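This part of the workshop introduces the protein records we will be handling. Each record describes a single protein and holds just a pair of labelled lines. Instead of coordinates, the fold is spelled out as a row of discrete tokens. To make this concrete, we reproduce a full record directly below:
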Amino acid sequence: MRAKWFAIPFAIAVLATGCGGSGGDGGADTATTGASGGTGGDAPTIALFLPESKTTRYEAFDRPLFEAKVKELCAACKVLYNNADQDAAKQQQQVEAALTQGADVLVLDAVDAAAVAPLVNQAKQKKIPVIAYDRLISGIGYDYFVSFNNVRVGEMQGQALLDALNAKGTAGKGQIVMIHGSPTDPSSADYKKGAHNVLDGKVTIGREFDTPDWSPDKAQQEMEQAITALGRDKIVGVLSANDGMAGGAIAAMKRAGYDPLLPITGQDAELAAVQRILTGEQYMTIYLDIRSEAEKSAELAVAVGKGEKPAAPTKVNNGTADIPAFLLDPIAVTADKVKDTIVKDGFYKAADICQGETAAACAKAGIS
């Protein structure tokens, strides 16, 4: 499927017919249509586990897109939906409950991707396929990994920040602050690696943080600490690994009296971030084709739940095994690219973006 929303950067055919359903709100909720769980065959029960809700993408996009694709492919399937609220112990309970309820496939976005190997092993002992969603699970082999090229995400963020500093003539005149994501998320390590690939040797890194839970509040505190430690006039830019933390860092900059604000990166194309980019408060975001990620994962879940083994275009080594993988391409978006990416794809409607003080910026960018 690719209505006019998103283009998939890889091509693969997965034969899947007949399946769908919907999930609940956080626990092992099972609102569904059709057959009961644990049957496999033509109507597998698919368990989807998402890690948290502080990042708006999971409840606003990943979950509904995944559930809708399953329903489209398989009207008799059941989806067990769970959100762990950034609690690894809670996610463990959710996975164990789903296994007890007869899940035929696990689609797991791990809170702590280094600590879920025992859960994956439980599934393997029951011959239940596991798809790592968005975050690479380490320490054990499993069936598939669906995500973005995360090192490339970090490289794009680093290059965008470097471009902004060079355009201002400040790359060699101060220090940058790097605000990375959760240390329990292996994607965060990939983003960090990519950013360092670009920035090392070209800028001076004054302070660098790993931010528990990807928390915007903690990112604000980290930025405040950096400003105090380095001095307000010594900082020339900020590498933020996602939009939520960028919002926290921007709040810290405003409190410190920066005008104009320092160039800052982001990721996820959150609505507030897109508005900040248009009004000049945030320099860029990484636009992730979440529709493609969620729908590819749904297609795989339906297929493997029926006993099929779709071929993957590549493999990713997780330190223990080479995992068959589908890696999508990220897109760097600055103000001049919002119209032809985020708006054109229908990720947000112009009416959603162009509200209040953003309306004038939209007109300037040709968004209506």
Notes: The longest strand covers residues 204-210.
